[in-house]
Amino acid sequence: MSKSFGTFHALDDANIKIEKGEFFSLLGPSGCGKTTLLRIIAGFETPDVGVVSFDGKNIIGIDPNKRQSNTVFQNYALFPHLSVFENVAFPMRIRKENKKDIERKVMEYLHLVQLDAHVNKKPNQLSGGQKQRVAIARALINEPSVLLLDEPLSALDAKLRSNLLVELDKIHDQIGITFIYVTHDQSEALSVSDRIAVMNQGKVLQIGSPFEIYENPATEFVAKFIGETNLFDSRVVECEPYKNNEFMCTLDVPALGKTIKVTDYDKTEPGQQISFTVRPEKVRITLEEPHKSDRELNVFRGIVEEPVYSGFQSKFFVKLDNGTELKVFKQHQNYLEDGPEIAWKDTVYVSWSANDGYIVEVINQ
After folding, report:
1. Could you state, in order of their start, the residue ranges of all structural domains in the chain?
2. What is the CATH number of domain 3-224?
3. Which of 171, 201, 277, 351 has the least CB density, counted as fewest CB within 10 Å?
4. 255-283, pLDDT tens digit by residue?
């Protein structure tokens, strides 16, 4: 599917298949095409090329109100003069449904979003989170096959956003319909999605489970956008059979000043230029040099340039002997009576196993 606005290519050959009942997220930075794709699914935009199919039926040309989907917007779109009850009841009143059925279903869905005690309030009497739950109940009362959520939590503060995200996941589990969730927040997508499509500049770069997206990023962009990482341009020196259908590859990494070891499931050819990544939490940091008892351990020495204490963990920016900076996360698993063990300007050793690094992508030469 493709869509342009003048000379701007909002979508460039985007091809996604979403399974029935999935919590599927469209993730990417502003302007990447995710909202355009959602609006095409909803029927508010028409693609230049391509189709949208629900259960094998092309719905391009069908009006938004006649599709099997409903949309929850980030600005709530509630009627300010109507009560919570009447906002949720509005779609049923438009269809002129039975009064008793309206009352029963509205209370059923208000209970689902935990707003039973707020039925008579107006939107201006509600918090941001409560307003969004009203919008969700109103969308769900139509019993759509697909619920489209366009950055529904972006206007909320961090703690409320986190709490409502958990509630949204619970609602999905209870009703079992397909959720398509648009967000630029990778932590949101990772925490609730069955699968994620990472997008950039109108293209779908990778589709996979949160685990696959985080642990096995397909491109440099995905590696950098999903969480934090250390990323280096490298050259393959050799790749030889290792174990469990893996290869042990030796990489020449100019930024690190020496070769390192990394395991891979593909035999990358010697001389090939690649991108290599290792997540900060995979890197160990110690004051004593680790015993390099096997060839799988990559060890470097450096100085702590900046320690950042965050309660449950510390983030260290370590300047290696050759001047390259490496990010390291250290989890605080035990009580720290005298504060963190490693401090500013300490000489430290950073290390990671060959199994903890990852060849992100082969660079075209």
Report:
1. 3-224, 228-362
2. 3.40.50.300
3. 201
4. 999 999 999 988 888 999 999 999 999 99
